[in-house]
Amino acid sequence: MKLRHRWFPLFNVVALAVLAACQPAAPGAGQSTYDKVMAAGVVRAGIRFDNPPLSYIDESGNWVGFDVDLANEIARRLGVRIEQVKVDETTRISFLQEGKIDLAVTSMNHTRKRDDAVDFSVTYFWDNQTFLVRQGEYDSLQDLFGKKVALNAGSSAIDAWKKYSAERGGPAPEIVEFTDKVAAVQALRDGAVEGYAEDGVTLLALAAGDPNLVLLPGSINRVQYGIGLPVNDSKWRDTINYTLQELWQDGTYRRIYDRWLGPDAAVTLPLGGEMEVWP
Amino acid sequence: MTRATLDFLWSVLPSLLIGFPGGRPGGLALTLILSLAAIGLGFVIALGVGPGRAAGPWPVRAACALYVEFFRGLPLLLLLFVVHVILGGRRLGLDLSPRASALIALTLYASAYQAEILRAGLAVVPDQLVESARLVGGRAWQIYLHVRLSYAVQVMLPAFAGQAITLFKDSAVLVALGVGELMTVTRSALGSDVRNAAYWLPTYLLVGGLYALVAFAISRLAGRLERRQRSGDLLYSLTNY
Amino acid sequence: MITEALPLLARGLAMTLALTLVTSALALAWGLPIGLLRLSRVRWQNWIGTAYVETFRNVPALVLVIIGGFALPNAFPHAARRALFFDNSSVAWIGQITGLPVPYYAIAAVLGLSLNTSAYLAELFRAGVGAIAREHFEAARSLGATPGAVFWGLLLPQGLAAAYPAIATRLIHNMKNTALASFLTVPEFFKAIQTAIGESFRAVEFLIVAAGGYLLLAALMSSALSVAEGWLKGGRR
């Protein structure tokens, strides 16, 4: 009893600190990210390092890809330096919430669930999620119902696949959550899992070196990428939206798109939509 | 081992050692810099926390005990995220970069272990030593600093060295934040081309060898110290926990 | 938000406990004989013990875990990997017990962590045996004790007892290291926390829960180990 009494004030302090940390961060309070970025002259962009051809690391350690070029171009238009911060699906949203990054150009599918936690720019990329499988073993998405499949931790494909198979009467899927995409492809090649679902263009790029891996026809989910932004910061969101729309209108977007996904690129994907442009 | 594998290892070796051309210092060099800095900074904190837990007024003792048990009880991987997302988050207003968070997490982690080693060392300072220092007219603080503390540090040198090696190796989890140290460079160098799969084993074996080489060198160095201070290792075993 | 994640977190905590128990047991089972090899006066035995300790102690646990899980299968012919690592009766058996979809990753994590910890325990056990008074050996010899009796009656209990505090510290370190299994998709406590954050986008709250979980585990383990120390010392009388 005596011991408890002695420790009590200390636990009190700890408890208060925990409570303070649990208070929701006051979004929008204080200055906009826009003012902060402009004053510092630096924009911190969350980028992924294993997501070809959108954002990945080349042999000399440089971050390259469609998303990376887009982020660089946005920084250039804002007249600020870019600082690239490595994120993955499990960290990008919390880093945005906690102000570790100012924007996430991370091939992030705009979902309602995510929109509750962060905000999104206008849609800037369109694709479909499907499965990569070993050639000759599976022919359709239905064949994978109830099978052991690889998905990325934090990916929207997890909810999409659960919903897809439930709606078609499939059994509950068995999911292995990877954080390393290449490890997931290796697991598929080696027979550890029966399929690996991701955004189609990324699967094509990851599997480019192995002719025995093929995409299943069809789609479990249509994905629309938005740039992830801090919640309730309309000044910053407007700035990013206007910049994206300018890039779209003056042809810069198309140039970047064709560089990574056009007819001459290693992986091609016809442009899947049209960016919303406000007059 | 095929020719292609050797070529690959040879081509990534400079990046593993000192980082990618655009991100130097990185790789093993950055791992060493961060570890050394954390060990040094951690020792400064331990100089306060260790003696504080050994002999302070009860609130100080309790606070120091809480500090040690907290930072020693968390996996470094978790501590890294706690520091980066909570301490360096919006609520507390500290805007920490990944590298700053990495250094702080390593420092807190190292300091907790070092404080315990120091406390164990303080517990075995011979009374005669303190007595004789008092007899020759040392002031209380002088005795504390020059006799107790310096004896404790010296007798515990092997334990400190062991802790330094552990920290150096545990820093591999910094790859989770991607700060450009050895493990981050390793994973990046293997890239996203599935054709590189064959290089994973040789590359990680090489990297394991690099870690082992440095760790072995530190332990050899510590071995020399241990021969001078034979009792340290055992004292650590007997008094820790 | 936290209540929704409770089943997930409970399963993660159970997995962390299981990993801790299995890796601790294996590390003790391998570490003690290796420690004896290190004490051996036979040159090749001593050399094997030293090589084992220096290798597995000096390579980071994370590197060992990744080598076992993601790198090792690549060293085998493509056609053989499935049968060797992912689809055979042994992994199926472990999969049935644990409910893990890819049991091999958990096996790789267990092996990596056990090898690492066993190397530390071997060194501590050697130091513990080194602290046993010479007279005890002489007494045992003069009584005509067999080598087996010397091991079970003297080396093991007294060596363990002398090195016990440091062994306990290392075993708690090993418990914390089980978080590294999250790199191999093993759904232990840290991985469960990551999943919960990915589901709810409440990073701060779940990181605090994670910290509380690990501190609790460390405290429980510490008390369990001191109870075990009491038994060890009681048994020696």
User: How many structurally independent domains of chain C?
Assistant: 1
What is the mean predicted local confidence, pLDDT of chain B? 90
Q: Biggest interface: chains and residue counts? A: B-C, 47 and 49 residues
Instruction: Decide which structural class fits the backbone of chain C.
Output: mainly alpha
- Overall mean pLDDT score of chain C? 93
CATH class of chain B: Mainly Alpha
What is the CATH T-level topology of chain C? MetI-like fold
Assembly level: heterotrimer
Please tally the β strands of chain C and state the result. 0
Number of strands of chain B: 0
Low-pLDDT windows of residues of chain C: none
- The third-level CATH topology of chain B is MetI-like fold
How would you explain this protein's 3D organization?
The complex is a heterotrimer of chains A (279), B (241) and C (237). By secondary structure, chain A is an alpha/beta fold. Chain A folds into 2 domains: 33-124 and 226-261, 3-Layer(aba) Sandwich (D-Maltodextrin-Binding Protein, domain 2), CATH 3.40.190.10; 128-222, Periplasmic binding protein-like II (D-Maltodextrin-Binding Protein, domain 2), CATH 3.40.190.10. In chain A, 38% of the residues lie in helices and 21% in strands. Chain A has 10 helices and 14 strands. Chain B is built from 11 helices and no strands. Residues 231-241 of chain B have low confidence and may be disordered. The radius of gyration of chain B is 21 Å and the shape is elongated. Chain B is an all-alpha fold and 241 residues long. Chain B has helices at 3-18, 27-54, 58-73, 76-87, 98-123, 127-135, 140-155, 157-170, 182-190, 200-228, 232-239. Chain C is mainly α and 237 residues long. Chain C has one domain (2-236): Orthogonal Bundle (MetI-like fold). Chain C is built from 10 helices and no strands. In chain C, helix 2 packs across helix 6 (103-130), helix 6 crosses helix 8 and helix 8 packs antiparallel against helix 10 (203-236). The longest helix of chain C has 38 residues, at 2-39. Chains B and C meet through helix 3, helix 4, helix 8, helix 10 and helix 11 of B and helix 2, helix 3, helix 6, helix 8 and helix 10 of C.
